[in-house]
Amino acid sequence: MKSRDRVIKVFRNEEPDRVPVWCGASPEFIEKAKNFLGVAEDEDVYIRFHDDFRRVFSKYNGPDEFKPTIEIDGELKIRSPFGVIREGIGYGQPTNHPLANATIEDVHNYSWPNPEWIDVSHIDRDAQQYKGEYAVMGGEWSPFWHDAIDLLGMENMMIKMFEEPEIVEAVLKHVVDYYYAVSERIFRSAGDSIDIFFIGNDFGSQTGPLIGQELFKEFIYPHLKRLADLGHKYGLYVMMHCCGSFSKLISLMIEAGIDGVQSLQPFTRNMEPAYLKKEFGHKIVFNGCVDSQQILIEGTTDLVKKTVMETLDIMMPGGGYILSPSHDYLLEETPVENVIEMYDTAVAYGIYKK
Prior knowledge:
Elements: H1 3-11, H2 27-37, H3 42-48, E1 53-55, E2 59-60, E3 69-72, E4 75-79, E5 85-87, E6 93-94, H4 104-109, E7 118-119, H5 123-128, E8 135-138, H6 144-152, H7 154-163, H8 165-190, E9 196-200, H9 213-233, E10 237-242, H10 250-256, E11 260-263, H11 273-280, E12 285-290, H12 295-298, H13 301-315, E13 321-325, H14 336-349
Parallel strand pairs: 1-8, 8-9, 9-10, 10-11, 11-12, 12-13
Antiparallel strand pairs: 2-7, 3-4, 4-5, 5-6
Helix pairs in contact: 6-7, 6-8, 7-8, 8-9, 9-10, 13-14
């Protein structure tokens, strides 16, 4: 069975030949894996990991003042599409919150980015190179929750949800308007070559959601539904990356039209594989569950194998499961041999018997 067919069966709530697997990894880890495996191309790593997915990305092609990177005092820093400078490890933290004290007029008059600045002309070609072999993920990442936090400040935004909800709603709408427009341009250009609209928003902490169900329903749900509806309009499945403990929000995610969730950190509250399978079963596709924070980084290959087999025993019956690490970004410190063991075990053990 081709990888693409295997993944599509899972999203159709059918059992494929085996559990599909997916690899999301940092560029640093991929470089490390290439050196470990003695291969030259990123694609060689994904093939060795049996990855059933491939991902295509847009490119920025707009004015310099909105470029995704900026040099300050000789140091390269990340800039969000909405002009927020970030610094620190990885994606970093925002250095300022430009709309923290904004009026509603200030929000509407802010220098919002133009979706036309994003080049989507190459995406169909990038997807077509896989010749239908793999399930292709595309669309803008759309982390609208994080962008609103960057623009307003997290504590400030939470207060405004009660005291000035119109400010928060206006910011969210402008942010989602941008991502919606970019993704629609992508799908108009290359929708026939993409299978899954992949987005990301982290709503969970280690012990529970960062936002309660009522506030989620009021502020987040409409925008999540809008993006899910966009993906479905173009015949795509919609999968969302979400970290932490968010099981209390899963029913609302399903109601909004999210077809699958990725990450599933089993050491956070009420995110254990058995709990997720029991509570949500065939209502949504689960992608993740193999602890990338302790098991993959600190464990032995024997422990990785044992963990993968136990996870598969729980999650694979009846379909609806994709095996991957409990994050979308394997870190450089992760031992490559543990990652190989995870995927080799999944492919050997995750067979559906007919």
